[in-house]
Design a protein that fits this description.
By secondary structure, the chain is α/β, with parallel strands linked by helices. The chain is 43% helix and 12% strand. Strand 8 (413-415) and strand 9 form a beta hairpin.
């Protein structure tokens, strides 16, 4: 006979910890206390505490979790301050100019708080209801801004890498189906696919090669195309590369153009590339993760001419529209392309129950459970407006030009390019030193010393195998004086290191 076990529930604990109608007072209390700690984080003097890896790792007792852990919210908040908030990177700080991490807008935080608290799952209508309509409206809005046709569509994703993955998957499966009658989704691999080739700029995002490998096509299926002095894809080199692959018996299936390269912010000539894609009858994808949102500006909108011919597009709102991560979208010019990733599960979105009036967004996503990431952007657009967001983007572009103008003739700097968006790639140099390896060492020392001191965070990259420093400007509150101060720190550290070594 089985022994009966009686579980004793503790209603007081449920009230304390569960978010529901019984815990409204506790919810308000927790949020108010947390806000005080976040406000203190905003008062940090430096972008980073400068704490060493060893010192952070030494806080094992505070970081560790175990089954015996049971502390008050006040205790946990003190620990998260000590372990995380005191040492978190402050992307809003004027001395943070390293990567594509933007400061976030207050309306976006409100939208994110609502989405996190309500915890809507966006995959099916019966879990999301009007949340589905809000995401679809944001997709409609951005498709309209890109001048996509009426049958266009899209879906929110985790970021540019996932969006680019979907683009390559669709390009591969669409070509296999339309040219060979092969249904890769149903039947899997075929010999023809091993000859498929994708073309992109040599300055394109690493996710193109990474995703080609994840899709089973391998790094070698991606053919890098040379760039000009402005770091834009050479269209004559693109045609030559396509013809060369055809002569070798390979099969061109797609071109990936970049609207805002990660390092240089360069826009490939989209209009011309779109014509080449049409001539060869192959997929045209635009990776606009960085530069796509500049469609909202008067200064850069023309650089996106031709994007309306794209079969698919990547755009990241968490890079240049001041949204908390994640906030990204994948767009297609024809919603029928989503058939290459759709799947119908009896327990979730059965095919026989498919209803255009009650859409299930899972049909367009490779994720199942998915946050309501569209709400924060919707709330931002309602409160801030698209025109204001565009003005922020123009502001950081003109800041980049100010920095460029201030250092392009300085004997201590070598500038790689004139900024097209909001990045500046440059190299500290000493006129008397011609050894490139020594200059590489100096530039790495500058980057690491400034970061470890908490004074400033700059990025590094390589141009022609030489190490360069990089500013990525995404903070419209930054001033010329803020940036000139970082330039001054770079110069002082470079001279100091060179003198001592």
């Amino acid at each position: 006979m089985l022994q009966e076990t009686q579980l004793t529930l503790k209603p007081d604990l449920a009230v304390d910890y569960l978010f529901d109608a019984h815990s409204k007072r506790e919810y308000e209390e927790y949020i108010q206390k947390t806000v005080q700690y976040i406000k203190a984080f905003l008062d940090n003097d430096c972008f980073y505490s400068g704490e060493s890896v060893e010192m952070l790792k030494s806080r094992k007792e505070g970081i560790s979790v175990n089954s015996e852990t049971n502390m008050s919210v006040d205790q946990a908040l003190r620990e998260v301050k000590d372990i995380f908030l005191d040492h978190a990177i402050s992307f809003h700080h004027p001395n943070y100019v390293a990567h594509l991490n933007c400061p976030v807008l207050l309306p976006a935080l409100v939208g994110d708080l609502i989405a996190s608290s309500v915890n809507t799952a966006i995959e099916t209508w019966d879990q999301s209801t009007s949340a589905t309509l809000i995401e679809q409206e944001i997709i409609r809005w951005i498709c309209h801004e890109m001048n996509f046709p009426s049958q266009s569509d899209g879906v929110f994703t985790s970021g540019g890498t996932q969006s680019n993955f979907k683009a390559l998957l669709m390009a591969r499966d669409h070509y296999a189906f339309t040219h060979y009658g092969i249904n890769l989704k149903e039947n899997g691999w075929s010999n023809e696919v091993s000859k498929f080739r994708i073309f992109c700029s040599e300055k394109s995002h690493f996710s193109i090669k990474k995703n080609a490998a994840l899709l089973g096509m391998g790094y070698d299926s991606v053919i890098p195309v040379g760039t000009d002095e402005e770091m834009k894809m050479k269209t004559d080199a693109l045609v030559q590369a396509i013809e060369k692959e055809k002569q070798q018996g390979n099969i061109p299936i797609a071109i990936v153009a970049t609207a805002g390269t990660t390092d240089f912010g360069s826009f490939d000539p989209l209009e011309t590339i779109s014509k080449i894609a049409r001539e060869y009858n192959i997929w045209f994808h635009v990776d606009g993760a960085y530069g796509g949102c500049y469609v909202l500006t008067d200064s850069h909108k023309h650089l996106l001419n031709g994007v309306e011919h794209a079969d698919s597009m990547t755009i990241d709102f968490h890079k240049t529209l001041f949204q908390p991560v994640c906030s990204s979208a994948f767009l297609v010019r024809d919603k029928k392309y989503f058939r290459y990733i759709s799947y119908y599960a009896d327990y979730l979105n059965p095919l026989e129950s498919r209803d255009e009036e009650h859409p299930n967004l899972i049909e367009k996503s490779i994720q199942t459970t998915r946050r309501f990431d569209a709400l924060k952007l919707w709330f931002t657009l309602k409160v801030t407006g698209a025109k204001t967001l565009g003005s922020f983007l123009e502001a950081v572009h003109y800041l980049a030009l100010d920095v460029y103008d201030s250092i392009k003739d300085d004997i201590y700097f070598e500038v790689a390019h004139r900024p097209e968006l909001s990045t500046i790639v440059f190299r500290f140099k000493i006129p008397e030193i011609s050894d490139e390896k020594k200059l590489d060492e100096v530039n790495l020392n500058i980057k690491n010393t400034l970061f470890n001191s908490g004074k400033a965070s700059v990025a590094s990259t390589k141009v022609n195998d030489k190490i360069y420093l990089k500013f990525t400007l995404l903070n419209p509150r930054s001033t010329k004086e803020d940036l000139f101060e970082i330039i001054k720190m770079i110069k002082e550290q470079g001279i100091t290191y060179t003198t001592n070594n």
